[in-house]
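STRUCTURE:
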């Protein structure tokens, strides 16, 4: 089968299409014929060696969409249209940058859709993560206000569209004023230009502060995000674009009294309490099909354009989701 392989840690030129053996399906696993997959920063970090030096051939990729080729778990039928994400992809076993992949049934969901493979491929990782962060961590409710810090990221786009469809008022941030239009097209009610200090700007709009905040940026913005939240409000961190460590954090001065702070890492997707069968993915698909939610897709690539795709991702040239098809 064709696969995109990294033989050693490095830049985008280490991503090469090679012929490798098609995997055999162990008992209890599902083999999926990959049709398309979404691009994620995690795969760039993996390729570069940030998660450990690569010294033997590795296949990246943490999500995909396609058809069931073989099921040794008893949960699916060959030909079922499915999505998959996490569940050990790229880390415990070969990832999704290949014509075939293996996944545990807990991390596979059969879907019904008329969306193209490219449109479908933008959904799994982004919306599963946003579902967990907004519904499980923050327990959002219609009528509340949500701040999305890092609105032009894939997770930012997904959070905006999902929260808006769920009946929330959405404030999104961007560092560039020229992105205001695209964020409003995704559903943002208000766009705030982020110069690193947006708490006062948000409180000019909502004097008592916002109900909930989703921080996709991470360490560099967290203190300021917390300052924009109302009494008994909540913040969930889902992104670490600016790193995972804050040089100094004082619980007395930096964490406002009564504000709840949490973190969601997508490695938990598919585990107890986050079963794919309980997720709103089919609903999200139907909302996109009906035109009630915009697509996340920004750019599409063929598998043999993977180096260009990773370079564009690293250069922040993809607003929303980049998708690669086989």
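SEQUENCE:
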């Amino acid at each position: 089968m064709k696969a995109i392989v990294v033989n050693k840690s490095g830049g985008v030129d280490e991503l090469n299409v090679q012929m490798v053996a098609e995997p055999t399906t162990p008992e209890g696993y599902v083999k999926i014929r990959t049709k398309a997959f979404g691009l994620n920063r995690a795969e760039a970090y993996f390729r570069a060696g940030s998660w450990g030096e690569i010294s033997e051939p590795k296949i990246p990729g943490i999500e995909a969409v396609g058809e069931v080729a073989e099921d040794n778990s008893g949960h699916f039928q060959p030909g079922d249209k499915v999505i998959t994400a996490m569940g050990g992809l790229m880390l415990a076993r070969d990832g999704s940058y290949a014509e075939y992949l293996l996944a545990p049934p807990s991390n596979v969901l059969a879907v019904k859709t008329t969306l193209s493979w490219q449109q479908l491929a933008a959904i799994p990782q982004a919306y599963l993560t946003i579902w967990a962060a907004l519904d499980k961590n923050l327990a959002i409710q219609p009528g509340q206000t949500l701040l999305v810090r890092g609105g032009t990221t894939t997770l930012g786009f997904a959070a905006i569209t999902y929260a808006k469809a769920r009946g929330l008022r959405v404030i999104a941030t961007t560092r560039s004023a020229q992105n205001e239009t695209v964020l409003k097209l995704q559903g943002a009610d208000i766009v705030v230009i982020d110069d690193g200090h947006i708490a006062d700007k948000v409180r000019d709009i909502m004097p008592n502060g916002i109900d909930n905040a989703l921080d996709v940026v991470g360490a560099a913005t967290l203190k300021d995000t917390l300052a924009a939240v109302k009494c008994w409000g909540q913040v969930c961190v889902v992104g670490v674009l600016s790193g995972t460590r804050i040089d100094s954090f004082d619980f007395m001065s930096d964490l406002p009294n009564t504000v709840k702070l949490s973190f969601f890492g997508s490695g938990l997707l598919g585990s107890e309490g986050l079963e794919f069968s309980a997720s709103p993915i089919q609903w999200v698909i139907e909302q996109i099909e009906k035109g009630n939610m915009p697509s996340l897709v920004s750019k599409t690539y063929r598998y043999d354009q993977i180096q260009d795709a990773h370079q564009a991702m690293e250069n922040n040239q993809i607003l929303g989701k980049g998708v690669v098809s086989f």
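REMARK: The mean pLDDT is 94.
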